[in-house]
Write a structure and sequence with these properties.
Spermidine Synthase, Chain: A, domain 2, 2 domains, transferase
């Protein structure tokens, strides 16, 4: 078989290759280049500006880690804000929770969203049109700054990678997280995608963690291996009240049973998984333990795009 090869470049000396059997859709929008391709091993893959975002065969690992812990950690999650999340899989996960009354999803790229709705139904499963969901195609920083205090239970940041001069940088700064803290209710939780996490490079994750720690009383790293990325991928869960490290497997399973009901649709996350994903190995714990400077609006932080 004659394959095309997609090069997912992580560092100047590290490239991961995926064999592609076809291109489903491609479009250059106002904000990014969107490619939806068919890969030999992972099925449909979403690529933005040359960077792999997810695959249909294992996106559930990423999306369950990003969404479910924040929903379980909150005492009674009712109103949720999703920042980014264009392909709709975060909406799918959040709508599993019976307590949810309303979700605002704010993504800047409506043209890309139209592609996801057409070509990635396995991801969103119709969630864009759920009556509990309101879609907002605008700048998420401006959106959150307009929201009243204590208006959300949970905030999910499902964004592209952080790098110097990138489009999402203003959604990772101390000033942004101060707004997030303000609009969250008393038990509010926030979960953020925070790049890959491996001994040779923890810089992006640590900088986001240091920034969130400067605002929230509780900020915990978690991670999972995602095959399509071929690296351990990281997230940060911040909370005003409940610490995810205080929740054992039995507690998480009980909350899921109460709030989701039939948990058979969850392929990755449960109580045992919860305990595992928050346990960092010794080397990573050591690297993350030293204090660092938060990201702030208007200040350079020196992280180049992935692969440069």
């Amino acid at each position: 078989m004659a394959w095309q090869w997609y090069h997912d470049t992580f560092e100047p000396g590290e490239v991961h290759l995926h064999a592609l059997t076809g291109v489903i859709a491609t479009r250059k929008t106002k904000y990014q280049t969107v490619e939806i391709v068919e890969s030999e091993h992972y099925g449909k893959m979403l690529i933005l500006d040359g960077d792999c975002q997810s695959s249909v065969k294992d996106e559930y690992i990423y999306h369950e880690c990003l969404n479910e812990p924040a929903m379980v950690c909150h005492p009674d999650p009712r109103r949720v804000l999703v920042i980014g999340g264009g392909e709709g899989a975060s909406l799918r996960e959040l709508l599993r929770f019976k307590s949810v009354e309303h979700i605002d999803m704010c993504d800047i790229d409506e043209e890309a969203n139209q592609l996801y709705e057409q070509y990635l139904p396995e991801y969103h499963q119709g969630a864009f049109h759920d009556p509990k969901v309101s879609m907002h195609f605008e700048d998420a920083r401006e959106f959150i700054e307009r929201q009243p205090d204590h208006s959300y239970s949970v905030i999910i940041e499902d964004l592209t990678d952080l790098f110097e001069g990138g489009p999402s940088i203003v959604l990772f700064t101390k000033e942004f997280y101060q707004h997030a803290f303000r609009v969250l209710d008393e038990g509010g939780t926030l979960c953020v995608t925070s790049s890959y996490l491996k001994p040779t490079n923890v810089a992006i994750h640590k900088r986001i963690l240091d920034t969130i720690r400067s605002v929230f009383p509780i900020a915990r790293s978690l991670y999972s291996y995602v095959g399509a990325y071929d690296v351990p991928w990281s997230y940060i869960l911040a909370s005003k009240k409940n610490d995810p490290l205080d929740m054992d497997a039995a507690t998480v399973d009980r909350i899921l049973a109460d709030r989701v009901g039939d948990t058979s649709a969850l392929k990755f996350y449960d109580g045992v998984t919860h305990e595992r994903i928050f346990r960092m190995p010794k080397d990573i714990r050591s690297m993350l333990s030293t204090p660092g400077e938060p990201l702030e609006d208007g200040k350079s932080f020196g992280i180049a795009p992935k692969g440069i």
